[in-house]
Amino acid sequence: MARQKVIQGGEDDGDKMPSIPPGFGTGGEFNPDDDKFDDELRPQKLADVVGQKKVVDRLKIVLDATLRRKEPLGHILFDGPPGLGKTTLAMTLAREMGTECQITSGPSLMAPKDLLSYLTNASYGSVLFIDEIHRLPPAVEEFIYPVMEDFRVDIVLGEGLNARTINMKLKPFTIIGATTRSGMLTAPLRDRFVHREHLDFYDLPELTEIINRNSNKLRTKIVDEAARLIADRSRGTPRKANNLLRWTRDFATVREPEGHITKVAADNALAMLEVDSVGLEAQDRRYLQTLVAVFSGGPAGLSAIGHTMNVPPDTLEDEVEPFLLRVGFIQRTPRGRMITAAGLNHLGLTPPAQPDPDDSQKRLF
Ligand code: ADP
Questions:
Q1: Residue 19 has what pLDDT?
Q2: pLDDT digit string (tens) for 231-248?
Q3: Domains of the chain (ranges plus CATH)?
Q4: 307-318: per-residue pLDDT in tens?
Q5: Half-sphere exposure of 87 (CA within 13 A, CB side)
Q6: Is residue 21 over pLDDT 50?
Q7: Rounded to an integer, what distance in angstroms lies between the CA atom of residue 88 and that of residue 101?
């Protein structure tokens, strides 16, 4: 999704949704991935960021040092699965620096000229956030090297013998890149980031805290057991936790007399969404079932699985596989993806009996 917008830093300017009079719709379709909805629950300060303690502690040091020296932050790269807080950290850093944050993404920067307006708009010390930076086309990547190193752009005018390069100086600023595939980043680009941070999945107490805080922000009462249940089904991801919270809140508004999220309401809401006991959704289960039914459990190539399921392989790799790998339901082998015994058990299937090593020894003699 291409996103282009600027947020102003500094004071908490309360970029909250305007309040909607009771009984009126929002005038648009609800899309939980919409930035407008995301922003409402996004931590605004570094101190509000839950979890990722080591990363946050290191960022605080860098932030304090640069604020004291009144310099721009060094370029930062965040990597990790979607929904873990890469955009959130970039925005909070800009806010803490009291500067603006321009937002764009790798796929939307098709040619160097697409990047130019962001570069000329970047004020001293401001932040340019580039999401999915591994998808920058090579020509844009080449163009960005002198920007990151010397705050300079090289513009080539004319062609062949008449070609001339014009250098343009930029104000020093900070590029914060985010990627779900750090392995796809070229070494020269990766090396130009001064700080590189990997974000990991969140644990249960952290997700429970996010859910409790956010139900307060959404002015919804939730019982502890329900918060823990939602956290447990959130697959280690704050974005998932927020989406499940919004869904259970809608469910409770309609089905519960007081609109509170009780344990029973959360249970029923998650069942209606077909979220199972470990947090898998229909698409995750379909992935496992495809591996078994079509590829005899694997090994199978990612694109073959994607084509069979009619889902882009990138979506599977970014959104489905990280969690299946984490819970040990699949394995990535050099020959492709394979379902594990735990994955088969989860589908209610019995793993094929392993050949008894004693048997083969017996057969040798
Ligand atoms: P990413 O950029 O890694 O895909 P985001 O930064 O957009 O993820 O995070 C998705 C949502 O999850 C945010 O809107 C925010 O509300 C929530 N979130 C992410 N990280 C945290 C965190 N550390 N603490 C609280 N909420 C978080």
A1: 40
A2: 999 999 999 999 999 999
A3: 4-11+21-198 (3.40.50.300), 204-272 (1.10.8.60), 282-347 (1.10.10.10)
A4: 999 999 999 999
A5: 23
A6: no
A7: 11
87 is catalytic: yes
Active-site residue 26, yes or no? no
Q: What DSSP string describes 213-243?
A: HHHHHTT--B-HHHHHHHHHTSTT-HHHHHH
Find, among 324, 290, 340, the residue nearest to 310 by Cα: 290
CA dist 341 → 275, 310, 329 (Å): 21, 25, 7
Taking only the tens place, the pLDDT of each residue in 32-58 is: 444 445 678 899 999 999 999 999 999
**Structure tokens that stand for 289 in this block:** 């079932």
List pocket residues of ligand 1, CB cut-off 6 Å: 38, 41-43, 49-52, 82-88, 178, 210, 238-239, 242
Q: What local confidence, expressed as pLDDT, does residue 32 receive?
A: 42
CA 214 to chain centre: 18
Is 10 a residue whose pLDDT tops 50? no
* 86 labelled catalytic: yes
Reply yes or no on whether the pLDDT at 20 is more than 70: no
User: Which pair of structure tokens corresponds to residue 194?
Assistant: 């001064």
Q: How confident is the model at residue 356 (pLDDT cuts 50, 70, 90)?
A: low
The one-letter amino acid code at 308 reads T
First to last CA, the chain: 63
In 28-134, DSSP assigns E strands to: 76-79, 101-105, 127-131
- With tokens 């750090």, the residue in question is 182
Tokens 């089904």 found at: 233
Question: Tokens 């979506």, residue?
Answer: 315
CA gap 101, 149 in Å, rounded: 20
Q: Cβ atoms within 10 A of the Cβ of 240, count?
A: 24
Q: Which among 88, 104, 174, 180 is annotated as catalytic?
A: 180
Nearest to 346, CA basis, from 331, 324, 363:
324
Place of tokens 């979607």: 82
Find the 239 Cα to ligand 1 centroid distance in Å. 6
